[in-house]
Amino acid sequence: MDIDTVMPAMLLRAGGNHFHIGLLTTILLGGNWFAQLFFAPFLYNRKRKKPFLLLGISLRILTLAGFAVMFYYFSFFRPGWFITLLLSAALLFAVSGSFAGVSYTDILGKSILPQKRKKFLSIKQVIFSSGIFLSAFAVKNLLHRFEFPTNYALLFFLASAFLFTAAFGFIMIREVPVAVDKIKGFKNYMEAFRREFQKNPKLLYYLLTINTLGIGLGMLPFIIAYIKQVYGLQSNEVGNLLIFKTTGLIISGLTLFLLSRRFSYRRLLSAAFGTSFTIIMLVLLLSGFHFIFPVIFFLGGIFYSLFSISKSGILLEISTNENRPLYAGMAGAGSILITLFPTIGGLLIDWLGFKSVFVIVLSVLVSSLYFIRKLNCKK
Fold first, then answer.
1. Residue 275 — pLDDT band, cuts 50, 70, 90?
2. pLDDT value at position 212?
3. CA dist., res. 39 & res. 103, Å (int)
4. What number is the average pLDDT over the span 269-282?
């Protein structure tokens, strides 16, 4: 259920438009992070985060099963109602993910030695990407072999089943409890935010970096919409593009794992900028050639890998075991541009057209270079 290929293609096939794609991307990408602001105060005061991690995962399993049931009974819904239910289910999926995300970040930071984090995040990306690569072939075959909506019902059922299987791995994690100074009330929590910004100037530049550079995360769903509008989009093409994207994920993740000591997070961020910049330029200059889109999604996989490893790694480096849930909440709340842009972009596409929106994204990406330099993360 890749957010850049499968999900937008699914929404378009169900009768959605550019605005719906933007809203879906906002929910799945930004909604997940933004909701962390509201869950972090509750989770910060808990010595153990594992029970809440498992709760978030369980809600996601049930939501994916709900997606499958909705597509199985697709013919019983009116188009408008079905889109509304899809977006509502996506919101529940994102919110449960943010609930699990704060707990996961905290447990990850406590479990991995600082000098091993970059290597761990790189090999984690390789394993994650390999799983998606195998899933991409299943996606391609299911979407091609079965008719809509049966194909998407099967996809979401499998997603639910695989996440249920993965939950047993999380159950086996041994969490190290950490004593914390409890924060009472949302007002005091916001005051703790203010104090951290004063003590750690890197936090502000971190948030500005992930917002301006992270805007590239929302581009691939719109490129899917562009392909469908200009060339048409067949079910097997969705699987092909997902395969190209996951190939980029695997190659970049494996490269970073093997050469992790040679790369600082600052270099990874600069490489992520260069990759995203190239993607936008290819869309602007060569989108008239259909063969360029597999290259774009291959580069999209590389960008996602570079950005996600840097984003997670830097957050672990600038936080401590005691304040990490607090920082995770701030990172979520600070991702406001990533959260809002896909919805705004969906509206702007209908008004200005695809290429004008891509130029706007390009200008925002360029501004990230200044914040990357100011962040000055040397590890």
1. very high
2. 87
3. 10
4. 90
Question: For residue 93, what are its two tokens?
Answer: 């999926």
Alpha-carbon span 318 to 201, nearest angstrom = 10
Q: 0.90 cut: is pTM over it?
A: no
Q: Are 53 and 170 in contact (CB under 8 A)?
A: yes
Task: Identify whether 214 is part of a domain.
Answer: no
pLDDT tens sequence across 72-112: 888 888 877 888 888 888 888 888 877 777 777 777 777 77
Give the C-alpha separation, 253 to 260, whole Å.
Answer: 10
Report the amino acid identity of residue 191: E
What is the domain-level CATH number for residue 169?
A: 1.20.1250.20
CA neighbor of 333 nearest in space, from 196, 199, 218, 216 = 196
**Secondary structure of residue 334 in the 3-state scheme:** coil
- The total number of structural domains in the chain stands at 1
The tokens describing 338, both together, are: 């990533």
Residue-range definition of the domain harbouring residue 324? 6-176+225-375
Q: Is residue 215 part of a domain?
A: no
Residue 179 is predicted with a pLDDT of 65
**In angstroms, rounded to a whole number, what is the distance separating the alpha carbons of residues 80 and 94?**
21
